[in-house]
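Teaching note: in complex prediction, the entire set of molecules is handled at once rather than each chain in isolation. The prompt given to students was simply: 'Predict the structure of this complex.' The entities are:
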Amino acid sequence: MDVRTLSRPATQLLKTTRQTLPLTTSRGHKTTARTKRALKIAPHDSFLPSRSQPFPAADHIIYNPPSSEASPEHTPFIFLPANDPRREAIQRMRLASPEALGSVAGAASPEDDADLPPAMSYPRRRAQYNLTEDDMAEMRRLRNEDPLTWSTNALSKKFNCSPIIVSIAAPAPAEHKKWLEEKAERRRERWGPIKTQAREDRGRRAEMLYRGEI
Amino acid sequence: MKGIRPSRWGGQLLHARSSPATIPRRNFLASTVRCQSTVQEPAEDLIDQIPEEGETLPRKLPSPLPEKALQSAKLAALHSRLSLSKKIPLQTLARALVTPSADPNSSFNNANLAFLGSTIINYHVAEYITCKWPRLPMVIHYEALRAFSGPESLAQISRRWGVEAAAAPGEEVDPGLLQWTSNSGPLVGTRWGGYVRAETDRKHSFYRRGMSSRVVLDSDFGDAVDAGSVEDAHQHNHDTSFSSFVQAVVGAIYSHSGREAAKDFVESHILSRQVDLSSLFEFQLPTRELAMLCAREGFEPPLARLESETGRHSRTPVYVVGIYSGKEKLGEGNAPSLDYARRKACMNALKSWYLYSPGNKVRVPSDMMEEGAKPWKAPHIDIGEVI
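The expected output is the structure of the full assembly:
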């Protein structure tokens, strides 16, 4: 009996303290003047006029917000058709100030590339046209004899061409393709749930990218 | 490349698919018991059933009588809100509000006006899109057409005009309300038929449905006329009914005020809306498509160049990649990985190719019908899609 009367107020005390005290303490600005003072922040430097030169300073442009991705509605120079008046206007501007806007499109030479950003390295199409009819026949013969040894990559190294050319010119026999597919399927079955989910998400991300959603 | 429907833009969830329904066909030879005059005409075998004066009509009509239009305040308000000409009578506007789902009799519903209006709207929108964005692929062209004058967009327009639907269509409701019901199954191809492909019956057989056949055989928006493909019959009927009012108003303006007035109305209510065409694109192999484009047009092959980067070893890096053909920059994209940034740059370059526009004020062929028009100068005509 005594224990119960003692314990009941104690539990109520605990409850009330939890209700009244917030988890994070914060102080509000109770008056208008304090709120205004608290929200008064100096403008960013990019909004202010340049102080580098003595008054009167030269005119300058403030880019705020800064430059963002170009709109696809802006057509690049070489995409303009021949009868578009913008083409002549840009050409005239480029002739007037070649250093500011880059010279008119011409043959790229190594010294011209110097002012361009560095090229990225990725597998891309480099047309060589170095294969003859006999090469193709030889490629097909090797692929049919032993598709395991003469894989796409092995043939592309041997004939100095891209693997895509090999897959077009000398496709593997159907049973070999089936065997490869089964092998890949067996490998996929060994994946755990995390890896499977990650692969699915990657595919979904690529689809979103192609729809322009990310 | 595929086009994304404007109604399926992000955030709008797809509706659950309901069970397929059969296509209701309009009976073209249905006899018209009612007639345009308010005096009921006796039919041969119904002579004994002519109602006496003061007696109620023997059967309830599906839509309000045309003469009631003059007493409706809603209808007069709608007429003046749309700034319609005095030449367009209120009775015509009342008829534009009666959809075939409420009243199947084509002498009293808006089917004929809506068909006339839809041809006028689609003609003006199509010529505008073709002249303004001459390089659009056909899929994107169809989706742009749908974004301007599809049933969903026109339903939105009529909602913004302040058109309200009657709770249930009938003789006694205000003629200023839209008369429609969704109980009649999906309304597909009910207006003036519409070509139903023979292969729609063979649901499970593979059939190639190419773009050229869509141009020739299918509806104005490249859709096959097929009731089974309607996902949400209620929403479909709602949009079709509300859009049929907009089409019927355009048809009424054309028949009462002429071609010029109809064109002005379409320009100010439908073509004045903004559509972001760059969000309609869905690419499949953008890098390859851009390489093919450069090869076709005789440009140097595209090369990705890293313009700037930040935080390469951090959790959230940003790469800015530009695509160059020789010294000319084609596009730019930024992403948290090098590969994505390159693909985005390719997509932006392709979009800027497809979205080429000769200018904001393009002349369309129907401008030549005006008196004293300047001589026609041929617009830019593109050779076609890349892949």
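Point out the following to students. Residues 2-20 of chain A form the longest helix (19 residues). Chain A has a mean pLDDT of 82.
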